[in-house]
Write a structure and sequence with these properties.
alpha+beta, 3-stranded antiparallel sheet, 4 helices
């Protein structure tokens, strides 16, 4: 069986926190605990003088890529509910190839 993982394109995420909420509800996590957490960088002024925010969804130690969901063919809850469609679940080898095309992206796996 191929190794599965999560691809996140940081250029697209706009910080809606839908992934955090979906994960917390799916896993029934207590307040303050997260399987995926949005880190925010900014506001900062870039060299063009524009103000900029960057949002970084980061899986935590509590993330198991929604093993119960994926075993029955469903997407991880964070991917299913991502409003920006910046997350994808799939084969690690295929997801890793996409990093060349989208350098402000990352691929996560459980190993």
């Amino acid at each position: 069986m191929s190794k599965m993982g999560l691809f996140i394109n940081y250029d697209i995420c706009f910080g809606c926190h839908a992934c955090e909420m979906a994960c917390s509800q799916e896993k029934k996590l207590p307040a303050g605990e997260f399987g995926i957490k949005i880190a925010q960088y900014g506001p900062h002024k870039n060299i063009n003088g524009d103000w900029e925010y960057t949002y970084l969804p980061i899986p935590t130690k509590l993330c198991d890529l929604c093993a119960e969901r994926t075993e029955i063919g469903k997407l991880p809850s964070c991917v299913h509910h991502c409003e920006a469609a910046c997350m994808e679940y799939g084969d690690m080898e295929e997801l890793s190839k996409r990093l060349v095309e989208q350098p402000r992206s990352v691929v996560f796996s459980l190993d």
